[in-house]
Amino acid sequence: MTKTAGRTVARPKAIKNREKPIQKTRLAIQAAFSALCVWIGVEMLLFVRYLESGGARSFVERPPGVDGFLPISSLMNLYYWMHSGEIHPYHPAGLFILLAIILVSLVFGKAFCSWLCPVGLISETVGDLGKKLFGRTIRVWRWLDYPLRSLKYLLLGFFAYSIFFLMNEIALKRFLDSPYNLVSDIKMYYFFADISQFALIVVGVLLLLSIVVRNFWCRYLCPYGALLGLTSLLSPHKIKRDPISCIDCGKCAKACPSSIKVDKVKTVISDECTTCLNCVDVCPVANTLYLQSTATKKPVNKRLVAVGIVAIFMLVTGIGIVSGNWQNDITPQQYLQHQGSLHSYGHPTRTDDIERLRHESPDAQQSAVSSPRR
Ligand code: SF4
Ligand code: SF4
Q1: pLDDT at residue 374 above 50?
Q2: What is the rounded CA–CA span in Å between residue 289 and residue 143?
Q3: What own/partner pairs with CB < 8 Å and gap ≥ 24 does 150-154 have?
């Protein structure tokens, strides 16, 4: 017997769930996307070597996909596009990658995090290692979990406030035109290739924390995840549980990497659900736990989810390519010109810097985005 809507009804005979799990496919897609990122990293290394040689080495084209690692510049480009109707020619691929990721989350929830993001793959792998080493991972107490989870929203709020409230179209254009934005991909490359001791310690601590607390970075600190968590709430696809056929085994909640109590709800409505489908795969009863479209009220095939996520990503980035908004409009000569002064360019760090971008003369504005590092 089971209780539903205050009534006690007879539980139907449990039919074994024979549907094939999708986790291997998910892992394969995650691995392929991570391999693509590694390839982008290698091409970037060769491009930077060309710049470091002052143009003496043979030229290797800059991979446009590297713009996907510039989320702030991409967010500004998006806002600039919304304001002016124009796509800024510096790092335009980042804008299309951002749009692709947002569209994936609008359709399939926060699926980018568990199906495509290379940091998500590292985080999962490290979490699995922790589970193997210690037999379990720590679930942070609820009273601490909530404030920690809000940290990523504070970071997102800070970026959103700086861009959407403090910057007008002029300030946006001046920032996007600035030498700092022009070389932001090269600076980002050096951040990782020439990593400071402090940054290395921070990365090391985050990795260690991710061993004991599953997805520590993603759950508590990633502002990208916060943005997708919010957009995912609008997604028409949600995990549904049939409380009548459910045998209350709790396997779904145990398998959920986001610590969602799947076994206690009828519909998973959570900014932490990454549509990884782990819960659906482990459910032992057929037609009890599934991803449902609120439009058709029918379960969505797991393979369709995999195909859909990849197809949306390829479609939006493909539009960027065929519309001629993929390649950077920065020539290798421009990169070479700025290579020597690269380390003197810094981004605005205070609201005063943004105020200067909005109001002062072009010279003062340039200093707001090209002043020596503080
Ligand atoms: S509720 Fe299911 S789909 Fe969502 S994160 Fe948890 S295991 Fe993944
Ligand atoms: S895995 Fe979850 S939904 Fe499936 S039977 Fe067990 S408790 Fe119910």
Answers
A1: no
A2: 29
A3: 151/220, 151/221, 152/219, 152/220, 152/221, 152/222, 152/223, 152/225, 152/226, 152/229, 153/226
CA angle 349, 187, 104 (to 5 degrees): 85
Q: Which residues of 215-235 are buried (b: 16+ CB within 10 A; e: fewer)?
A: bbbbbbbbbbbbbbbebbeeb
* Structure tokens, 121: 């793959």
The label of the residue with tokens 């480009």 reads: 77
Distance 265 CA to ligand 2 centre (A): 10
Q: Is 283 in the pocket of ligand 2 (CB under 6 A)?
A: yes
| CB distance 241 to ligand 2 below 6 Å | yes
Which pLDDT tens digit goes with each residue over 326-336? 998 899 999 99
> What is the DSSP-derived secondary structure letter of residue 243?
T
Calculate the CA 299 to chain-centre distance: 26
**Residue percentage of the chain with pLDDT more than 90:** 77
CA–centroid distance, residue 69 to ligand 2 (Å): 38
Q: Where are the beta strands (DSSP E) in the chain?
A: 2-4, 7-9, 237-241, 289-293
Q: Which two tokens stand for residue 141?
A: 């107490």
Q: Are 124 and 215 in contact (CB under 8 A)?
A: yes
CA nearest ligand 1 atom 6, residue: 256
Q: Which ranges in 259-301 belong to alpha helices (H)?
A: 278-282
pTM of the model: 0.89
Give me the mean pLDDT over the 65-80 stretch: 94
Could you say which ligand is closest to the alpha carbon of residue 261? 1
Query: b/e map of 286-310 (b: 16 or more CB within 10 Å)?
Result: eebbbbbbeeeeebbebeebbebbb
> Nearest residue CA, atom 8 of ligand 1?
276
Residue 69 DSSP symbol: G
